[in-house]
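Most newcomers find our protein records easier to grasp once they have seen one. A record pairs a protein's sequence with a compact description of its fold. An example says more than a description, so a record of this kind follows:
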Amino acid sequence: MQMISGSCLIAVLIMPILGFTGLVGKISKYIGPVTIVPIMSLLTIGTVPDIESKMALHWISIVEFLTLILFVVILERYEVPIPIFSLSEKKFKFTRQKIFSQFPYLLGISIVWFICFIMTITNAEPRGGEARTDQNASITVFDQTPWVQMPMPLFFGPPKFNLALVCGFTASCFAAMIESIGDYNLCAKISKQSRPPPSNTNRAFVVEGIGCILAALWGVGTGVTTYAENIAIMSVTKVTSRITMQMAGVFLILAGVISKFAAFLSMIPEPIIGGLLAMGVCLINGVSLSNLQTVDMKLSRNLTIIGVSIIMGLTVATHFEKTPLNTGNQIVDDVFGTLLTIRMLIGGVIAFVLDNITGGATRRQRGFVSEIDEDDDVEEQATVEMNGYALPSKLNQFFLRYSWLTYLPVIPSEREIREIEEKLCNFKFIKNSESIESVKKV
């Protein structure tokens, strides 16, 4: 574990370095839907074997999958009456909420897990069955796990390093970075925002790198990166609030400290996880394909690039999985052998190169258009309220006071900050004028 943590620690340094130098932000300006769709499609295709292996364990996985389909697709718009107690009226009354679209995963897990519990206590599921909730390993882990356990850095000892592992982790970092850029654009699309500015992309990579460094120091054994299934959940629940994500992060930190709760979640039967994974991957694929609505699909150029990148990404990776690279140099074999088996990386590089060196299409035909609905009110779009990338006003004032900071790739330029502040002032002026007019009318 010391070797894995140390090698991961060295490899992930490339992420904050690329973010601080601004290289990632410059590259992201040339990554459009024609590149993003093959990357995310290959990501979902690559998880098919894992989905099949987990769902093949037990038929309850199909029940979980169909339950999620029921909540996400069929019952999404239905409002359920929920009783609440009104303190002002001092009585119970009913309010209607779309709980199926707001909590599809929570409801799906709870219902199917309860079915597994009933099957366990009635012995409808035989001893040792995958759908039982009293698996010996899970119960043992739950019993032996303390209620509170504070994770400590360097838990397994001082880090050690191995060149082959460092090269392997570095290759994985490049694949994760390609996926992250695609995830950023998908998240922007769901949030009805324009493409992330270069400074935001740079900051995101710096933060991802810091997260990976912390994971390595704490002995997690893997890095941390964007998780496309969370974007799929955002598309279902229609919740894209930054505060919600922050609260979810706090919840996960508490779950790591209150280890008994984490051990309880690990008792979820594996087939249920298979059904959840299948639904999440389906949603990711659907959201990624929706990027094509901004691409001119009448052009054979776009069709060819998308088709070639997906098929070649699968073909090249499959070939090197069956026929490992053998150059006589172990380090070269480890690095390039890993890179050439990552479908997303192969397909993404092919799509990126072809989309940017091949002519015959304008940027708009390639899908480089604003994700905000063009029918929306122009003034509303212009306000800082609609800009999910705008920094707080006090922070903007600080950067304007020390303008040399705006030359850093992770900070918006001075011109961008001034534009945001001007829009904010105009927005406040309009709001104050409306308030004064309403008072006069009264």
